[in-house]
Specification:
Blueprint (H helix, E strand, L loop, with lengths): L1 H13 L2 H66 L6 H15 L11 H19 L14
Helix pairs in contact: 2-3, 2-4, 3-4
Length: 147
């Protein structure tokens, strides 16, 4: 250790004064680059974990909501099949349209598909069908969502 320190002193004494000043002037820039690289790496790793958790939980919420709509719609379609004379064709068509939208809902995350818009479309059609039936189809877990 003492030999390294002595060598550093000799190198410092034999170094050109311009190199020493240049090193001092550029040390701030060098430390900023080093700090940026360390921060970027740490932020990337933490961001990936946070992004995964956010996507996972948001996907679970959307899946629960769409699953609720699917269960209600399928039940209403079964009831409508048994009571065709009691339910107007307009209502049956509205129920079938919601069912079709749910069946076309994307099951994986693709860049060219807007899942939020698809969810909004299903939600709007479901509300319309419930209004035609004069029932409250509000998703019971809606108040528990954080979004």
């Amino acid at each position: 250790m003492a030999a390294q320190h002595a060598k550093k002193q000799i190198d410092d004494k034999t170094a050109d004064i311009n190199d020493v000043f240049h090193s001092i002037v550029l040390s701030e820039e060098r430390l900023m680059k080093q700090g940026f690289q360390e921060g970027f790496l740490k932020g990337s790793l933490e961001g990936e974990v946070d992004g995964f958790h956010l996507g996972y939980h948001r996907g679970a919420e959307i899946g629960a909501e769409i699953g609720y709509y699917k269960g209600v719609i399928e039940t209403l379609l079964v009831v409508s099949d048994k009571r065709k004379h009691d339910i107007p064709v307009k209502v049956i068509n509205a129920l079938q349209k919601v069912s079709d939208l749910i069946n076309q809902f994307p099951t994986s995350n693709e860049e060219d598909v807007d899942i939020i818009a698809a969810c909004d479309s299903v939600r709007a059609r479901f509300k319309k069908a419930c209004a035609l039936l004069k029932i409250d189809g509000t998703f019971p877990e809606l108040s528990k969502f954080s979004f």
